[in-house]
Design a protein that fits this description.
Layout (H helix, E strand, L loop, with lengths): L1 H30 L8 H12 L5 H19 L2 H20 L9 H21 L6 H13 L3 H19 L2 H23 L4 E7 L3 H12 L3 E11 L2 E14 L3 H11 L4 E6 L22 H7 L2
Antiparallel strand pairs: 1-3, 1-4, 2-3
């Protein structure tokens, strides 16, 4: 068990180090030489450095993050705090001591690839239990105290930052910086949540046996059936009805619509986004040879 824990820690710190390197490439090879900003504390440090060039940006990254690390002490676990300190100090040191050649002076490419590298770096860091930017810690803290969405807090933080950028530097730089931030945020989401996008579907129908069979055999997706005791629908009061719950890849949602409408055009169904999945048959849809394990009522229906 201890060996496994040591291996996990080494793997996590290695990936955090890789994230620091990628973020540094995005900053020093793309954003910093052109005064482009990213969001959060990193963007704030770049903005301050553009006005006070005598202050080293590595020092600014550490100093501006200190209040957020203090918040992290009261908000996050000790393990995350230690990793976050390692990440922030590591980023500051790499930016200070390692030089990267400027790749391009095309503003659009700077925004796109700067955001891509920074997003990969932050995403890898977060995925391995650390924070590379203090604005995320602020989001967790305010969410814990006041129930405000973390995403909203970071969004408001960056709206203020980019508004100040437009006033101090230029509207053009602010606009390109917003593009960088959008790309960074999207890349972070992809790294954390993965490239597969799943959606949940809940179905209530009088023909639930046929719909169950179609979902399993035509989509190859697993499902769960809940027992409803009493409800009220278009046909009046219902008792002892079945509720089908399944999760499918978003690319199959049109096929799911056709499947339900073909069996029961009057079926009631709800779709909802899935943020995290683990286990089950979602990533390995049911193989045909598993049909032998299906309930007899579904097998009998398939023979019709």
């Amino acid at each position: 068990m201890n060996n496994k824990k040591i291996y996990t820690d080494i793997s996590e710190y290695f990936q955090i180090a890789l994230g620091i390197f990628l973020a540094s490439v995005g900053l020093k090879a793309f954003l910093l030489p052109n005064d482009f900003l990213d969001g959060g504390v990193t963007g704030t440090a770049i903005l301050v450095n553009s006005q006070f060039e005598s202050i080293n940006i590595s020092i600014l990254l550490v100093v501006i993050n200190i209040p957020f690390l203090i918040l992290a002490y009261f908000t996050l676990s000790k393990r995350i705090l230690i990793k976050s300190i390692f990440s922030i100090l590591g980023l500051a040191l790499v930016i200070h001591y390692v030089n990267f050649d400027v790749v391009t002076d095309d503003k659009l490419l700077i925004s796109i690839f700067g955001g891509l590298f920074v997003g990969c770096g932050i995403g890898l860091t977060i995925k391995n239990g650390a924070v590379l930017d203090g604005s995320e810690i602020l989001g967790v803290f305010l969410n814990d105290r006041f129930g405000i969405s973390i995403g909203q807090i970071i969004l408001y933080f960056n709206i203020i930052l980019f508004s100040i950028t437009a006033f101090i530097l230029s509207v053009e730089i602010a606009m390109y910086s917003i593009l960088t931030y959008i790309i960074t945020a999207k890349v972070i989401d992809l790294l954390i949540e993965g490239f597969e996008d799943f959606i949940g579907v809940m179905i209530v129908s009088k023909h639930n046996i046929k719909i169950k069979s179609a979902i399993i055999n035509e989509l190859g997706a697993g499902l769960t059936v809940y027992k409803g005791e009493k409800g009220y629908g278009s046909s009046g009061e219902l008792e002892n009805f079945n509720i089908i719950h399944t999760v499918i890849n978003r690319i199959d949602i049109r096929k799911m619509h056709r499947l339900i409408n073909n069996v029961d055009p009057d079926a009631f169904y709800i779709e909802f986004d899935i943020n995290h999945i683990k286990g089950g048959v979602l990533r390995r849809y049911l193989a045909k040879n598993k049909g032998k394990q299906l309930p007899k009522e579904i097998l009998d229906y398939n023979k019709k």
